[in-house]
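Regression test case RT-17, inverse folding.

Input:
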């Protein structure tokens, strides 16, 4: 259908026709009919620009809250080329690209990830204003795309459940993840280390922030426990997400306990992804 430019073009044709009738001017008649013919041909070309165009959803990786979720879309041509094809969602700008004859192009669309869980962007708008920009042909396509959004990592003290009493001796286990049985020395302070383990004497001597390091508790598994943390559920999940990444980076086995689900202690990419997925989908309706 005509867009604003096309509507203005149609109004101009109407005024030209009135002028040609009023002044009985053959040149005005000829110009009006030629422009009208161009308009009709543009309708056919605009529609034809969609013929044989195939859209397919590409793979999309998971992101964290606050990042841009990226959706890949592949456009394939079956036969003729396609020019100036625009695609996107109403809340964002459309991307425009050309697809060669019997070829394919891939584009990446993005949306902000504002909350954890599945981000489903909905139907995709595909449009064309080719060749003159006077008309627009469009369609809504549902590619059933979804991106998993993890909680935003939040640094803090490590929430552990080591399977033992929560006395003062176990404080290091809950706070730093290194245990409290055998003193190992001092290490550089990292975000998330317990401030109660800071070595203030070293700091007063100008040696920087150091914390006491302890050997792991023998025979005890390292558990990240949702119920062992205070605060609202989203803050708890963000803290757990942060320590899943930290412990995975250290290649240290850990388990995850959420109300209604439990992942046994392990480490590696598969375990990390399973834990992050559990955090992302906790309490989210299917």
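Golden output:
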């Amino acid at each position: 259908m005509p867009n604003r430019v096309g509507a203005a073009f149609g109004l101009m044709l109407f005024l030209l026709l009135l002028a040609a009738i009023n002044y009985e001017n053959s040149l005005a008649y000829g110009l009006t009919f030629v422009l009208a013919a161009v308009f009709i041909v543009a309708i056919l070309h605009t529609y034809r620009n969609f013929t044989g165009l195939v859209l397919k959803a590409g793979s999309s990786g998971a992101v964290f809250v606050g990042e841009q979720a990226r959706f890949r879309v592949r456009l394939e041509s079956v036969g003729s080329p396609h020019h100036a094809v625009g695609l996107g969602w109403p809340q964002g700008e459309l991307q425009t690209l050309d697809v060669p004859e019997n070829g394919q192009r891939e584009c990446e669309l993005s949306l902000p990830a504002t909350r954890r869980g599945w981000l489903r962007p909905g139907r995709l708008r595909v449009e064309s204003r080719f060749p003159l920009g006077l008309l627009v042909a469009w369609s809504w396509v549902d590619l059933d795309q979804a991106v998993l959004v993890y909680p935003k990592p939040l640094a803090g003290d490590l929430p552990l459940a080591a399977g033992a009493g929560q006395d003062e001796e176990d404080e290091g286990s809950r706070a730093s993840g290194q245990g409290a049985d055998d003193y190992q020395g001092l290490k550089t302070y990292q975000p998330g280390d317990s401030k109660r383990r800071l070595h203030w004497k070293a700091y007063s001597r100008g040696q920087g922030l150091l914390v006491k390091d302890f050997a792991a508790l023998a025979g005890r598994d390292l558990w990240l426990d949702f119920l062992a943390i205070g605060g609202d559920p989203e803050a708890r999940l963000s803290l757990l997400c942060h320590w899943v990444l930290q412990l995975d980076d250290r290649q240290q086995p850990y388990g995850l306990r959420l109300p209604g689900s439990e992942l046994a202690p392990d480490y590696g990419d598969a375990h990390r992804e399973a834990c992050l997925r559990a955090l992302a989908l906790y309490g989210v309706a299917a």
